[in-house]
Amino acid sequence: MTKVYIIGTGLIGGSMALDIKSQYANAKVFGIDSNEKHLDEAIHLGVIDDKATMDDLGNADFVILAVPVDISLVILPAILDKIGDDTLVLDVGSTKFPICEAIANHSKRRNFMATHPIAGTEFSGPSAAIVGLFQDKTNIICEVEKTTFKLQELALELFKKLGMRIRYMEPKSHDKHIAYVSHLSHISSFMLGKTVIEKEKDERDIFDMAGSGFESTVRLAKSSPAMWTPIFKQNRKQVVKSLEEYIANLTHFKTLLEQENYEAVYNEMQNTNRIKEILK
Fold first, then answer.
1. Strand 138-142 versus strand 112-117 pairing type
2. In 3D, which of 25, 41, 69, 15 has the Cα closest to residue 178?
3. 108-165, pLDDT tens digit by residue?
4. Most buried pick, 86, 124, 213, 258, via CB within 10 A?
5. What backbone torsions phi and psi does residue 112 show, to the nearest 5 degrees?
6. Angle, CA 177 vertex, CA 184 and CA 195 arms, to 5°
């Protein structure tokens, strides 16, 4: 029997649990969560098979750490202290340099693999978990050479079964690039939502005019602040840099409108249209 311990039974941890149960016939999935209601809900929904505690980790084949990134920094060393010599520990957080640095000198660093599956929705909690969330999604692995080869093979087999594509990056490079394509997107969505909500105080019918474009753009503003605040804190320098560049572009666009330079406005949008080819 393959014993899998999911620490954090929300969207990512729960979805991984469901996929593991569908791909490994002999897997038993245990849940560890500070929220007892989440554990009860996860059992009721069939996301996990049973509850567990940190003291049970000595029995684990896999440990998947899927909690907010600030909590991961605190508990990962304790997890490594408790596991057996053949246990694979994965984290799935959106920042990689801080956690790699936190356990760089741990005696069981070889048992840990730093990963970031680029997958998710705006929802949270066990009820958000879905089968197939990771199919055809990119999974970034950092410092793969620091994980013992036998456990690398185990992890890659798992990721293949879940349908993920693999990309290898250094932690600092990951955090720099993800600030632009993920962290900045969430801030933009939150602040657009804030702008419209504040306007709605004066004009109650503004949401009646909101179409699918607005809905898709502010979708990420439904995401959990408890998850995203620690991400912004850990990746503050890179997020601030990406914000500076984004704000400069917004200011430039505003200036073009003030100057009634519509040819330049057209060109700005036309030049950006090539993103259709990049993201097709």
1. antiparallel
2. 69
3. 999 999 999 999 888 899 999 999 999 999 999 999 999 999 999 999 999 999 999 9
4. 124
5. -105, 140
6. 5
